[in-house]
Amino acid sequence: MPRHVLTLNDLGEEGSWLLVQQARGIPDAKSRTDFMTERTAVLLFAQDSFAERLCVSAAVRQMGGSLVFQGATGGWKSEVERYQRQMLAVIDYFVDCMYVYGIPGLATSVDRDLVQFPIINAGSPDAHPAHVLADVACMLRYTRDDLKKARVGWLGCTNGTLFSLIEALRYFPFSLQVALPPLEDRPTLETYARHCGVKVDFVDTPQQAVEGCNFVYAGCRSGLDDELAQQWKVDDALLSHADQKARVLLGTSPMQAIEVASDILASPASLLLLQSENRLRVHKRLLHWVFLENERAI
Does the record carry Transferase as a key word (predicted)? Predict the structure, then answer.
């Protein structure tokens, strides 16, 4: 059966730890190999995301593979949803793996019995496994491999990264405290945390979210008006509540994230570049993971 990575659950604890450590072990994130030579990956993006397309494309191309990209236009999404069996069988003739971006409920909407090639979730509203594995690698670096020392604060709206961050608590021993803006659906996240069997501290304000944290996420800002966006901004005043050596991570692309003061974003406290590097590393290791037990008999 093909291996898929739609959520961290597909990897499990052993696989999640293995991928993180293997990703960290790549000497040069931009190293080129021939692992994907004569393999083609199709990228089906239901929403635009330059950052995700860039990262996934770089991983496949630097490993010698070929790419086919299809954006939100063209009606493919409704065709695949309506004629899943037929469309997946047709796609199987032309490609060796598929990246999907921007489709909610991907883990439950794909009939795995119908798919004869690996599917990797490049990001959805309710899961972003590659992002979180890359961020765990960042935390390991700055806690000297002791995630029990990682106290993580999230401020901002809900997105796939936050869902996967909660799921990651099953496998990685960091702590997490979350503040959501007004009108965000907190009960859904609380229910999800209970479903995962993990403890998440839900608080009310950005200051409470970052209190004592050594890792601070600037989450998604969708739905925030200008006044709220300023109140939730990551600046020196907010970080005064965090650990003195707190590092700042982005929980989404810079254009969609809670604003981070420019001097902080340009400082050593910002892990933006390390996040990007580790995401490239993780996507390369994901390709190894899905293919090494996917080879078909010749």
Answer: yes
Pair 185, 235 in one domain: yes
Counting the structural domains of the chain, the total is 2
Per-residue pLDDT tens digits of the chain, which is 298 residues long: 789 999 999 999 999 999 999 999 999 999 999 999 999 999 999 999 999 999 999 999 999 999 999 998 877 888 888 888 888 888 899 999 999 999 988 777 778 878 889 999 999 999 999 999 999 999 999 999 999 999 999 999 999 999 999 999 999 999 999 999 988 999 999 999 999 999 999 999 999 999 999 999 999 998 788 888 899 999 999 999 999 999 999 999 988 999 999 999 999 999 999 999 999 999 999 999 999 865 544 3
The domain that holds 251 is classified in CATH as 3.40.50.1370
Looking at the fold, whether 207 and 263 belong to one and the same domain comes out as: yes
Give the closest residue to 175 by CA, choosing from 218, 207, 213, 129. 213
**Containing domain of residue 80, as a range?**
8-128+277-291
Are 219 and 159 in contact by the 8 Å Cβ rule? The answer is: yes
The reply to whether 66 and 193 lie within a common domain is no
Same domain, 148 and 160: yes
Burial 53-63 (b: 16+ CB within 10 A, else e): bebbbbbbebb
